[in-house]
């Protein structure tokens, strides 16, 4: 997916918006290195100067040449003094002035047409080619970059997501990886630009810029989902087509590049081969990195077979560890944990949520990874316990369980009020934690078993996590539960002022920064994903809100029901859950 992450997202930021190359001399449009942006009034002043100097003829050529080259080119092109395609760096200011003076001398009608000025400051003047034409390399001005950097610092991201550099837009942060571009464009810029350019006070130009960028982000998000269907593929293709059409409308000076052409063919690949995770380039890059880190004896004739042999040895070892019913004893637990920790490092950054590493979690024999400590058990409050009972009863096959305080006539097995509180639950590098030391991992989007059809999940913060034990047959089942404080949804009168709702494929909404009165008890299967959180007070709402940017590519890790045919809640198809015990 380098075509989308580096070829499209990075190219949009650098090639169209000029990030990291603002101070370089633009090519093809007559810009001036380090030129000071001119206000609309200053633009008009320079254009009027050209008119007065031209009317004085050749005697004022020296003064005409002192005018900035981009203004001379624009006037010369508009009046036909030079061909429209001739505005390149080969034409000097003197040649441009000569062309204008020759045209004026030979013109039968002594009328000088002037191009319209831009409604915003620009360091590079050119002919306006459309209703939303933009000055090259002045898209993200200093004020917008400053807002973006501040929002990067203030946005709360889960620990598995690498934070972008806080000085984004400066060459000092060095080369950015594909992960960084993905996070910046699909999270940070979504939070900032929709807030700024999607508000009621934004200009028509800013709205056009935003809509074009959102088409790109939506296309990338749809293409990198873990599951695809024809509707999703068609939406991706529609977003990409509209994005490229928008480039030609907004950035007339920019030519489409090969990556844009390739992006239009990704629909065929998605239809033929399914989700991109099965055929993107990351695994090959990982293997290249592994090969480069291996020690060799420089025997090139046997190196390939050695690599291949150890590749198969590693594959067989993973299969052995994943399928063997190891004894349930501390030494084997330690061995399995060491193996898991050694191989989980192969997945880093945002790809933690895109990759299912082979590992212990694929055991066929159910085994609880939780270590419940009775000595650390505490009694739940009646309110939380009541909610816990209601949630367990909604698990398939568990409706017969009863509260400890139920009527004696209820013969169902009683659920204990004792639980052990823990700090976090770790699922193959994706950690869910309570508010506190790991608060950044406590922001989640979720649903409940009795939820009606919702176009956007609920949002909340994990207040507590506890282990609860119940008996099924002759087995004690230990399962984690999450006490979640749910954010309040916007009232109907404020929904029109949520700028993020305009773009449903961004999976972003505003919620009030206020919790519902009652808490919810969730299982791991109720959780969709983490969300990126950003807090601010919209001027039209006048209440502090939280931007919920869903990171739902994690969802596939938890899509399997916790309760399979064995009625054992810790048999997971995709992950092994480890509990980090709370340190007293």
Automatic annotation (TrEMBL):
Domain of life: Eukaryota
UniProt xrefs under PANTHER family: F5/8 TYPE C DOMAIN-CONTAINING PROTEIN-RELATED (PTHR46579), F5_8 TYPE C DOMAIN-CONTAINING PROTEIN (PTHR46579:SF1)
Protein name as catalogued: DUF4218 domain-containing protein
